[in-house]
Structure formats: structure tokens, C-alpha cells
Amino acid sequence: MGLMEIKNRIKDEAVRVGRAPESVQLIAVSKVQPDERVEAVLSEGHRVFGENRVQEAAGKWPAFKEKFDGVELHLIGPLQTNKARQAMDLFDVIHTVDRLKLAKAIARLAEEMGHCPRLFIQVNTGEEPQKAGVSPAEADEFIQECRDLGLPIEGLMCIPPADEEPSLHFALLKKIAVRNGLEGLSMGMSGDFETAIAQGATHVRVGSAIFGERDYH
Ligand SMILES: *Cc1c(COP(=O)(O)O)cnc(C)c1O
Fold first, then answer.
1. Residues 146-159: pLDDT tens digits?
2. Which residues touch 192 (CB under 8 Å, ≥6 apart)?
């Protein structure tokens, strides 16, 4: 498909549902993709990218950042506390704050380092045991705890269960965000980003529809 088609589809869907196209940010998810494909998308002028592993991102993004100005990097995968410092050096936005221990580590490091990435809290809307994220029932309390720590919480993020209608999960995420006064909604991937935009997504995370299928070998 490619970058231009996805950007056009985002714009069309935003307009269709009466939203400003600029209110939806496209995060191009470059995990596992070969460097040539990532560089091609950078050369087309796109600057906002997502990675789900700190180690992998640390291996490839410093070089891309030297070559291309204005890169904005989003961490969309789980973050271990012992990698928080490295993540905070590398990423502009972290979408996966999901437990108090991590929130406290980020707060402590932010004070020490003098800067903090923008943050999203991951909510496990499907309450799947294998997935990260706070449960919907614990979300309000966790958001408050993060705010008490002084963290710049911008919004919420979810990854709906693969076999369920995503719109129910997007609606639930939005409801939790609204009642907590949060504006950011990181939701929607290659298969469902238009649905997510119709339900208020401010950040869609699209990988394979831009870069092609990921080859894990
Ligand atoms: C890989 C990944 C994506 C992108 O998935 P595609 O289906 O390739 O668009 C989005 N969000 C998260 C959290 C991911 O890990």
C-alpha cells in the first residue's frame, strides 16, 4: 500500500467523520522492517515512527536521526524498568506506561535527567492475561497515581484482542479518557485504523500497511 495511500485514507476518514485531518497523527511502525524500507519512508518526508523494542530501536535509530532531521520516535511495546533510562533517552513518546513501579522509575529518572517523554497509559481493554496494560477497572486510580507523581500523561493506548470487534474496545478507551480529562487516544493499527479514527483516535499505529508484511526470519 505505502505511505501516501495510508495518509490519504486517514485524511478521508477524518473528513468523513467531521474531524480535522491534522487531529490524527500517523505513527509509522517500523519494527522488524529492513532499513531500506524505513529509509524510503523517511525520504518521502515522514518523521513519526514507532518501535516496540528498546534494544532494536537503539540499534537503528541513532543513525537515521543523524541523517534525517526532526524524527519523532514512539515506544509502543512493553518497557522494562531497567530499560527506562535508555528508553527516555531515545524516545519522544512512550505509549506503554502500565504499572506503578515503572511510573515511579520514569518520574525519578525525569527529575535526574531533566526531561521526560510524553506519556500514554496502556489499558488492557480486553483484560487478556498475556497482554500488558492496566485493567479498565484500575485505570482511573492509576491515572491519578501517575499525575500525583507529576508525570505528563497525554492519553491512553490500547491493543484490542485480535478476535474481537475493535470498536467496542476503542469506545471503552475513549470513555476512560474522557472521564479522566485526557485527550490523547493511541488506537488503531493496519486493519482497523479507520474505525479508530471514527471513534476519536489521535494517534494511529500503522506498520504492515505502510511497509509491507514483517518478515521475522
Ligand atoms: C506492531 C504493532 C503495530 C502495527 O501493527 P500493523 O498491524 O503492522 O499495523 C501497532 N501497535 C503495536 C503496539 C504494535 O506492536
1. 999 999 999 999 99
2. 160, 166
